[in-house]
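Can't paste images in this forum, so I'm doing it all in text. The chain is below; anyone willing to post the predicted structure tokens underneath?
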Amino acid sequence: LKPVQGLFCSPPIVSLRIPQIDCVAMTGGHRAKVHQLALAPFVRDELLTREDVEKLKAMLKRNKTLDFKSAQVKGSNLYASGVGQQATSTVWVRDNIFLAFSFYITDKDGSGTKTAVAIVNDVATYFLRHAARFDDVIGGGADMKNPM
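Text version of the structure:
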């Protein structure tokens, strides 16, 4: 690791939108790994100023980080996990629930709450549709490694 702007960083790693560099930032006396150098100034113990939040928001918008439409699964309210995730990964559940919560908590006009409810409904529909399979795996009647 080499020092970069008060952080300790590894060489750049290829990324789709922002050059990825593993950095170590100090927060609360603990080291926090920051994968995007551009985000490192915002990882700190002190509260972000309004100016910091506006800079962060502008950077996220500029890099289309807040554009979820491209990740939406066609014909549903669900969103696919990030690049490199295994198709069998359960990360999509966590990501969709977190996204639903984010839409709900930042809602200003009711549309975020509607989106959040739609996401949670589609996750619930998935689990209800596959409940028998879950029961079979939990009961030992099916091998969870064997796809449906």
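The beta strands are 2-4, 7-9, 20-27, 30-36. The mean pLDDT is 75.
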